[in-house]
Amino acid sequence: MKLDKRNTLRFIFSAGVCATMIAMMPTAKAQQTVAKVDAVAALLPKSVQDAGVLRIAIPDVGKPLAFKDGDELKGMDPDLAKAVAGVLGLKAELSLIPFAAALTGMQANKYDISYGEFYVTVERLKVADFVTNWQDYSSFLVSNSKDYKPTVLTDICGHIVGAMAGSAELETLNKAAKSCTNAPTVSAFPSVSNAILALNSARVDGVLINRGGAQEAINLDKTLNASGEIGGGPTATAVARTENSEKMLQAIKAAYDQLIKSGEYGKILEKNDTVYGAAKQAVIYTQGSTPPKYGF
Question: Tens digits of per-residue pLDDT, 221-251?
């Protein structure tokens, strides 16, 4: 919602008051969008029910998944986070953080769950549990003005490439680099915007990124393009491993399944142009579980 500029000039005080009220409205409304489902909320640990708050980390991975618009967090991840909290009858306490800080933040008891489209790996299962909630694959974000259009991982050999710090894409690039005779240079970036800046200034030849993030970057900058389909598979919400893990996992899974069944899940994905990654059901993965098979 935007204020009319003429009214802002004519009625500065009134507009200021309205702006304050409008800024407050999205958060309040978001908490009430999806109704509490008592049977699902009852699965929560009592300590979380009593606290009435779900502490949620939202990694800054960019549009369409998570991004800042003024003082408001938007994208698929915040929308899903608020919907899950709504089903559980909890207030969604969202924190926008760097992707690499998500799992360590949960280990430090800062967050109960974290978004970020985590691929479930053996290494990650050592420190957190997961509930799948979407599906994704990766593409190389490249410049239209360059001839470099990688379609498979061996195409990175001899080139300068990058990915988000702490991401599965960065891990994928580092593993692929070991098979190259002509070793590539692999760079890590704290955010998508930093990676795109490096790409536009020719400091990297390509950036491996989730397909949705690549498409949003292309929508904003027509000099960019996406190349290749790398990896792919179910992505997940991370759940802090604590004494409450078992109940939290069951509650989060049940919340997702409820959202899928009610159609709210589909509406959120349609709103954010992420329907291509819709999941049919949520699946729990804990330490010792066999991770999904990804096409890395």
Answer: 999 999 998 988 999 999 999 999 999 999 9
Closest CA to 199 of 218, 173, 171: 218
Cα 189 versus chain centre, distance: 16
Distances (CA, A) of 201 to 97, 103, 208: 25, 31, 17
State in words which class domain 137-232 has.
alpha beta
Q: Domain locations in the chain?
A: 30-135+233-285, 137-232
**How many degrees, rounded to 5, is the angle at CA 231 between CA 227 and CA 232?**
105
Segment 136-160, tens digit of pLDDT: 889 999 999 999 999 999 999 999 9
- Answer for the pair 226, 238: CB distance below 8 angstroms, yes or no: no
> Which residue, among 107, 88, 85, 91, has the nearest Cα to 44 in the 3D structure?
88
The residue type of 3 is: L
Residue 51, classified by CB atoms within 10 Å of its CB into exposed (0-12), middle (13-18) or buried (19+), is: middle
Instruction: Tell me if residue 142 falls in helix, strand or coil.
Output: strand
Question: What letter represents residue 115's amino acid?
Answer: Y
Separation between Cα atoms, residue 33 and residue 86, nearest integer Å: 7
